Amino acid sequence: MHIVLYEPDIPGNAGNVARTCVATGSTLHFVGRLGFSIDDAHLKRAGLDYWSKLKLVQHADWAVFERSIPPHAALYFFSKRASRSYWSADFLPESYLVFGCETNGLPEALHKRFADSLYAIPIEPDSVRSLNLSTSVGIVLYEALRQNA
Fold first, then answer.
1. Backbone phi, psi, residue 113, to 5°
2. pTM metric for this prediction
3. In angstroms, rounded to a whole number, what is the distance separating the alpha carbons of residues 51 and 137?
4. Average pLDDT value for residue range 136-141
5. What is the dihedral of CA 127, 140, 63, 30, to 10 degrees?
6. Between the N and C ends of the chain, which has fewer C-beta atoms within 10 Å?
7. Contact partners, residue 27, CB within 8 Å, separation at least 6
8. In degrees rounded to 5, what are phi and psi of residue 51?
9. What pLDDT, in 10s, does the model give residues 62-80?
10. Which neighbouring-strand residues pair with 5?
Protein backbone atom coordinates (compact mmCIF):
# COMPACT_ATOMS: atom_id res chain seq x y z
CA MET A 1 0.00 0.00 0.00
CA HIS A 2 0.95 3.63 -0.42
CA ILE A 3 0.15 6.34 2.11
CA VAL A 4 0.05 9.84 0.64
CA LEU A 5 0.20 12.85 2.96
CA TYR A 6 -0.68 16.07 1.19
CA GLU A 7 1.18 18.97 2.80
CA PRO A 8 1.38 17.54 6.33
CA ASP A 9 1.90 20.14 9.09
CA ILE A 10 2.73 18.28 12.29
CA PRO A 11 6.00 16.35 12.56
CA GLY A 12 4.75 14.00 15.28
CA ASN A 13 1.84 12.87 13.11
CA ALA A 14 4.12 12.30 10.13
CA GLY A 15 6.52 10.35 12.34
CA ASN A 16 3.73 8.14 13.65
CA VAL A 17 2.50 7.54 10.09
CA ALA A 18 6.07 6.65 9.09
CA ARG A 19 6.23 4.07 11.87
CA THR A 20 2.94 2.54 10.71
CA CYS A 21 4.26 2.42 7.14
CA VAL A 22 7.38 0.56 8.26
CA ALA A 23 5.26 -1.87 10.29
CA THR A 24 3.05 -2.64 7.28
CA GLY A 25 5.64 -2.48 4.50
CA SER A 26 3.84 0.50 2.98
CA THR A 27 5.45 3.37 1.11
CA LEU A 28 5.00 6.89 2.48
CA HIS A 29 4.64 9.79 0.05
CA PHE A 30 4.97 13.42 1.14
CA VAL A 31 3.36 15.73 -1.41
CA GLY A 32 3.93 19.48 -1.54
CA ARG A 33 4.96 21.85 1.21
CA LEU A 34 5.84 20.30 4.55
CA GLY A 35 5.12 22.09 7.82
CA PHE A 36 8.38 20.72 9.23
CA SER A 37 11.88 19.77 8.19
CA ILE A 38 12.51 16.16 7.28
CA ASP A 39 15.31 16.34 9.85
CA ASP A 40 12.92 17.55 12.59
CA ALA A 41 13.65 15.88 15.92
CA HIS A 42 9.91 15.43 16.61
CA LEU A 43 9.49 13.62 13.33
CA LYS A 44 12.33 11.23 13.95
CA ARG A 45 11.43 10.74 17.62
CA ALA A 46 7.92 9.60 16.61
CA GLY A 47 9.49 7.22 14.07
CA LEU A 48 12.14 6.19 16.61
CA ASP A 49 14.84 4.04 15.15
CA TYR A 50 12.65 2.87 12.27
CA TRP A 51 13.28 5.92 10.09
CA SER A 52 16.10 4.21 8.15
CA LYS A 53 13.70 1.39 7.19
CA LEU A 54 11.04 3.75 5.81
CA LYS A 55 10.25 3.73 2.09
CA LEU A 56 9.78 7.50 1.68
CA VAL A 57 9.16 9.40 -1.55
CA GLN A 58 8.90 13.19 -1.61
CA HIS A 59 7.05 15.02 -4.39
CA ALA A 60 7.29 18.77 -4.97
CA ASP A 61 3.56 19.07 -5.69
CA TRP A 62 0.45 17.13 -6.73
CA ALA A 63 1.32 17.23 -10.45
CA VAL A 64 4.75 15.70 -9.80
CA PHE A 65 3.13 13.02 -7.62
CA GLU A 66 0.58 12.16 -10.31
CA ARG A 67 3.29 11.81 -12.95
CA SER A 68 5.14 9.37 -10.68
CA ILE A 69 2.32 6.85 -10.23
CA PRO A 70 1.18 4.18 -12.69
CA PRO A 71 -1.63 5.03 -15.09
CA HIS A 72 -4.98 4.01 -13.61
CA ALA A 73 -3.52 3.74 -10.11
CA ALA A 74 -6.16 3.10 -7.44
CA LEU A 75 -6.51 6.42 -5.59
CA TYR A 76 -8.66 6.82 -2.47
CA PHE A 77 -9.08 10.19 -0.75
CA PHE A 78 -10.12 10.74 2.85
CA SER A 79 -11.88 13.80 4.20
CA LYS A 80 -14.23 14.60 7.06
CA ARG A 81 -16.35 16.37 4.41
CA ALA A 82 -16.97 13.19 2.40
CA SER A 83 -20.42 11.62 2.49
CA ARG A 84 -19.43 7.97 1.98
CA SER A 85 -17.84 5.83 4.66
CA TYR A 86 -14.50 4.12 4.03
CA TRP A 87 -16.39 0.91 4.92
CA SER A 88 -17.90 1.07 1.43
CA ALA A 89 -14.52 1.24 -0.33
CA ASP A 90 -13.15 -1.77 -2.16
CA PHE A 91 -9.40 -1.34 -1.76
CA LEU A 92 -7.13 -2.79 -4.39
CA PRO A 93 -3.56 -4.02 -3.91
CA GLU A 94 -1.04 -1.19 -4.26
CA SER A 95 -3.70 1.43 -3.50
CA TYR A 96 -2.76 5.05 -2.84
CA LEU A 97 -4.53 6.29 0.31
CA VAL A 98 -4.49 10.09 0.24
CA PHE A 99 -4.88 12.25 3.35
CA GLY A 100 -4.86 16.05 3.60
CA CYS A 101 -2.94 18.24 5.99
CA GLU A 102 -4.07 18.46 9.59
CA THR A 103 -5.17 22.10 9.45
CA ASN A 104 -6.59 22.49 5.94
CA GLY A 105 -7.46 19.01 4.76
CA LEU A 106 -7.41 18.29 1.05
CA PRO A 107 -7.67 21.18 -1.40
CA GLU A 108 -11.06 21.85 -2.96
CA ALA A 109 -9.69 21.03 -6.42
CA LEU A 110 -8.95 17.47 -5.33
CA HIS A 111 -12.37 17.19 -3.65
CA LYS A 112 -14.04 18.10 -6.93
CA ARG A 113 -11.81 16.15 -9.28
CA PHE A 114 -11.88 12.94 -7.25
CA ALA A 115 -15.39 13.17 -5.78
CA ASP A 116 -16.10 9.54 -6.73
CA SER A 117 -13.07 8.38 -4.71
CA LEU A 118 -13.69 10.44 -1.56
CA TYR A 119 -14.39 8.72 1.76
CA ALA A 120 -14.81 9.60 5.43
CA ILE A 121 -14.19 7.73 8.66
CA PRO A 122 -17.47 7.78 10.60
CA ILE A 123 -17.49 9.64 13.91
CA GLU A 124 -20.31 10.40 16.32
CA PRO A 125 -22.21 13.55 15.34
CA ASP A 126 -21.38 16.57 17.51
CA SER A 127 -18.51 14.73 19.19
CA VAL A 128 -15.13 15.88 17.80
CA ARG A 129 -14.09 17.96 14.79
CA SER A 130 -11.98 15.17 13.35
CA LEU A 131 -9.65 12.30 14.17
CA ASN A 132 -5.89 12.67 14.44
CA LEU A 133 -4.15 12.20 11.09
CA SER A 134 -2.00 9.27 12.21
CA THR A 135 -5.06 7.57 13.75
CA SER A 136 -6.98 8.03 10.50
CA VAL A 137 -4.15 6.57 8.45
CA GLY A 138 -3.96 3.53 10.73
CA ILE A 139 -7.70 2.89 10.57
CA VAL A 140 -7.88 3.03 6.78
CA LEU A 141 -4.56 1.32 6.06
CA TYR A 142 -5.34 -1.73 8.15
CA GLU A 143 -8.76 -2.07 6.52
CA ALA A 144 -7.13 -1.90 3.08
CA LEU A 145 -4.60 -4.53 4.13
CA ARG A 146 -7.35 -6.74 5.61
CA GLN A 147 -9.28 -6.60 2.33
CA ASN A 148 -6.20 -7.68 0.41
CA ALA A 149 -4.93 -10.37 2.78
1. -65, -35
2. 0.93
3. 18
4. 98
5. 90
6. C
7. 1, 2, 3, 21, 55, 56, 57
8. -55, -40
9. 999 999 999 999 999 999 9
10. 30, 99
